[in-house]
Amino acid sequence: MRIIKIVLLLGLLNSLNVCAQKAQKQYNPEGLTYHSIGTVLGFTIAAHDMPNMVEFYRKVFNVDFSEKTIQGFTLFEGEWLGLNLLICPAEFAQNTAQQTRHQLDIAVTDFDLIIENVQQFGGSLLGEVTVQDGIRSVGILDPDKNSMIIMEAQK
């Protein structure tokens, strides 16, 4: 019985290795070596418009925030997309940027409701909804103009 389990385990590991090699060739055709640097635990958004940003993420993405005060600044912390999300005043983060340089791609389960809520709670759409390979997607902006792409497989 133990030998059968080992053989099955080796077969599974070999299959996973083959899949990983195929994925590496598809997404890394140059064959570059990458090293894991750790695990992403969360991220911080330095906000210029704290009240509208907190309301937007609460209402659009259902983030349950708790407030905390650090050095006289009120910060909002919650869980979003399985990560810790911290919204802090831009002044606290000493962030003077007016536009982000990153963008999240987010799979959602109720595309139409998200679009409705984005527009209702201070966000906006970037262009028109597109459909490609059975996936609906559109760019959105939060109240501080951070961009994201929301997407959903067509039903």
Q: Any key phrases for this structure?
A:
2,3-Dihydroxybiphenyl 1,2-Dioxygenase, domain 1, 155 residues, alpha/beta, four-stranded mixed sheet
Walkthrough of the structure:
With 155 residues, this protein is α/β, with parallel strands linked by helices. It folds into two domains: 34 residues; 112 residues, 2,3-Dihydroxybiphenyl 1,2-Dioxygenase, domain 1 (Roll), CATH 3.10.180.10. The chain is built from four helices and eight strands, in the order αβαβββαβαβββ. The strands form two sheets. The chain has a four-stranded mixed beta sheet. The chain has a four-stranded mixed beta sheet with strand order 5-8-7-6, with helices on one face. The protein is globular and about 50 Å long. 14% of the residues are buried. The N terminus is likely disordered.
**CATH class (first level) name of the largest domain:** Alpha Beta
| Low-confidence regions | 1-25
Largest sheet: 4 strands, mixed
Shape: globular
The number of distinct β-strands equals 8
